[in-house]
Amino acid sequence: MNTGKVDVLLGLQWGDEGKGKVVDVLTPHYDVVARFQGGPNAGHTLEFEGQKYVLRSIPSGIFQGGKINIVGNGVVLAPDLFMEEAKELEKSGHELKSRLHISKKAHLIMPTHRILDRAYEAAKGKNKVGTTGKGIGPAYTDKVSRNGLRVGDILDGFEAKYEAHKNRHLHILKALGWTDFSDFDAVEKKWMEGIAYLRQFKIVDSEHEINNILRSGKNILCEGAQGTMLDVDFGSYPFVTSSNTICAGACTGLGVGPNKIGEVYGIMKAYCTRVGSGPFPTELFDETGNTIRKIGHEYGAVTGRERRCGWIDLVQLKYSIMIDGVTQLIMMKSDVLDGFETIKACVAYKLKDGSETTELPYEIDDVTPVYKELPGWKEDMTKFTSENQFPKTFKDYIKFLEDFLETPIKVISIGPDREQTIIRNK
Asked: Is residue 231 flagged as an active site residue?
């Protein structure tokens, strides 16, 4: 029997690696694109034909005409934000309703989840995680505590279910002493409009649909949100997201068996960034960090927050490659380092006791990065169309990374546009 394959594409750092652009470049080779976890806190930016798009909940394959895009059961969906995003895309000429399928088992982010998000963060004081305040954490909390409201619930007896969940949240907020409910009525009204809008889409048993697609011999690309170091199990806990961002999350977030996974594309930047609180061993607090931020436009696609910037961390990357079973690496934003005389790469951590390790430890708060310095290529690569044009110093940098990470770098991005992508023939 000719069964299709499932390939997975995910971020290997702390998110913001440029997954949206890569999905858009890879989608011509797939029949279906499916999103397997995360919520509207994840913004994927795509630029082509002079237009810039930011996707939050909709899979990045939506720009490839005729492809089915699936929002899987592992995703949490905010109906009002989804409606905004979808209408914006429809306005720019992208037809969605026949091509975007939504899992009945995906959980809904309620207006009260956002208030709970703010209340929980305020209660943590200086230990706050730095969430986007969009209710993702509380929605996943409800999911695992078996109190969640799901997309499938909007098809039957929804109003009563909604009121029961809302009242439970209000009871928790009262116990927390939370009193700020400004704009709640307006937000709830818009949220209910989002529910009505959601009903116009094809709401499916996505696990059956996905496995039937595979049985018919078609191929699926699974799109992850955020990055491996934000995984709730393997990331820099507790400064993580509330879902499994690793490759295994594609199995639980879509209902595919592990034996169906083929290629695992791991995306990394040529340097490193992080948004919000939490440890970041290679973070730069100097002019170099500011320069990387400025050249790389390192500001959150959804929040606009400044991203923290640092040199590439190969200890962390090696860990992510191991956890995810990465078969091919994709390096983004190489062009941001075009002007640097010297490039640094973290090759080990010095621990508190003075010893060194190349394995990611349980705590990374107070490790000191050990750097290897490499010569920069000092050449504008943004107009290149082939790897043959790469300067020798850049080729040496790629080889150094491949040798250290023991994984081939197959795709290199040299700018934000779809065209500024070089597929290596090696």
From this structure: no
> Of 7, 24, 31, 44, which residue is the catalytic one?
44
8 A C-beta contact, residue 321 and residue 265 = no
Q: Quote the tokens at residue 83.
A: 């409606």
Task: Give per-10-residue mean pLDDT for the chain (426 aa).
Answer: 86 88 83 92 68 82 86 96 91 87 98 94 73 85 96 96 97 93 93 97 97 96 93 94 94 96 96 92 96 91 82 98 98 95 98 96 95 96 93 96 97 88 84
CA distance 400 to 251: 33
CB 363 within 8 A of CB 357: no
Q: Is 16 a catalytic residue?
A: yes
CA dihedral for 141, 143, 148, 154, sign (positive or negative): positive
Helix (H) or strand (E) holding 288: helix 287-295
DSSP string, 353-411: TS-EESS--S--TT-EEEEEEEE---S--TT--SGGGS-HHHHHHHHHHHHHHTS-EEE
Asked if 395 contacts 384 with a C-beta cutoff of 8 angstroms, the reply is: no
Considering only CA atoms, which of 278, 284, 375, 269 is closest in space to residue 317? 269
Residue 370's identity, in one-letter code, is V
Strands 308-310 and 272-274: antiparallel
Q: Which of 7, 16, 117, 324 is catalytic?
A: 16
